[in-house]
Amino acid sequence: MVKSYKSIVVNEPGAPFTFIERPIPTPGDDEVLVKVLACGICHSDHVTTDGQFPGIQYPRAPGHEVVGDIVSVGSGVSKWTVGDRVGAGWVAYYCGECYQCKAGEFPLCVNGKVTGVHNDGGYGEYTIVHKTALVSISKELDPVLTAPLLCAGLTVFNGLQQVHNLQKGDLVAVQGIGGLGSLAIGFAKQLGYRVAALSSGEAKRDLAHKLGADYYLTPKDGKQSEQLIKLGGPKVIVSTSAASEPVSDQFESLTGGGTFLLIAPLESFQINSVPVLTKKLRVQGVNTGSPEEAEKTIKFAGDHNIQPMVEAYNAYDLDQVNAGFQAMDNGTARFRGVLKFY
């Protein structure tokens, strides 16, 4: 086995990516060593690159949409063996004992850790993963297409599953048709909902319908909120990007008991409190999901032929790494960027 590996790190908050050579680590008793095949590029990687969590130790390799093969296991690991294909998402560790864990809210574990924040993530040839964080992945699946399901796909799928009183046939509006929105359309359609895709122009109309959207709404036909009301009003608005009209207008288009599902960060916004009260509306955030929920997401996607739309980048070319990250940052990426290590 090789003695060192290449890792893509930031040396301090705000610093550029750079390559460093590190010795191959030895997993602890409850850990495994994974040879990384692919890792998705996610907006949440800014937590590490910008130092948004206290106490991050640098240099640090981000990345929490990791797919790879186990090459070494600790003495306390019995479920997993060398050669298993696995994934690692946002949750790097959960204790299983705190009140959040006992309620099944493993991503909110009070003692929890985050992949690529509290430990080195998937922006490197190898990474250490705690046994509580491991996700089983079939070797029949393409690592590049599977990586985004470990955060982007999981967040969208989990969010839809957690919406209160969402029934088959209800209208789900998806704001934005990028990496998250394209997955939201596919999952919503296959879960049995009517789907309205909201976009700023005509460029993605054909794609949206191909993904499963029943309706495609743009500002050229009038306010999207008014168009939604004419369709009966959505039970859910899945917000994956900034809208072409105020969030308050979209929010008020929700039908009674509806939910504004916040999948990705938005700038601060205002909403009218009156329909919140009279229509019992809610704003709901989604904080990814557990490894077990990731496995359910991957299975559902496979069973229903839902594949992330990706743009792959060579992980051994720093120019491509930077290009992928910058495309995500400046909004020029059409879909999910993935670093490819093979």
UniProtKB/TrEMBL annotation:
<dbReference type="InterPro" id="IPR013149">
    <property type="entry name" value="ADH-like_C"/>
</dbReference>
<dbReference type="InterPro" id="IPR020843">
    <property type="entry name" value="ER"/>
</dbReference>
<comment type="similarity">
    <text>Belongs to the zinc-containing alcohol dehydrogenase family.</text>
</comment>
<dbReference type="Pfam" id="PF08240">
    <property type="entry name" value="ADH_N"/>
</dbReference>
<dbReference type="GO" id="GO:0004022">
    <property type="term" value="F:alcohol dehydrogenase (NAD+) activity"/>
</dbReference>
<dbReference type="InterPro" id="IPR002328">
    <property type="entry name" value="ADH_Zn_CS"/>
</dbReference>
<feature type="domain" description="Enoyl reductase (ER)">
    <location>
        <begin position="14"/>
        <end position="339"/>
    </location>
</feature>
<dbReference type="GO" id="GO:0008270">
    <property type="term" value="F:zinc ion binding"/>
</dbReference>
<keyword id="KW-0560">Oxidoreductase</keyword>
<dbReference type="InterPro" id="IPR011032">
    <property type="entry name" value="GroES-like_sf"/>
</dbReference>
<keyword id="KW-0479">Metal-binding</keyword>
<protein>
    <submittedName>
        <fullName>Alcohol dehydrogenase ADH3</fullName>
    </submittedName>
</protein>
<dbReference type="GO" id="GO:0005737">
    <property type="term" value="C:cytoplasm"/>
</dbReference>
<dbReference type="InterPro" id="IPR013154">
    <property type="entry name" value="ADH-like_N"/>
</dbReference>
<keyword id="KW-0862">Zinc</keyword>
<dbReference type="InterPro" id="IPR036291">
    <property type="entry name" value="NAD(P)-bd_dom_sf"/>
</dbReference>
<dbReference type="Pfam" id="PF00107">
    <property type="entry name" value="ADH_zinc_N"/>
</dbReference>
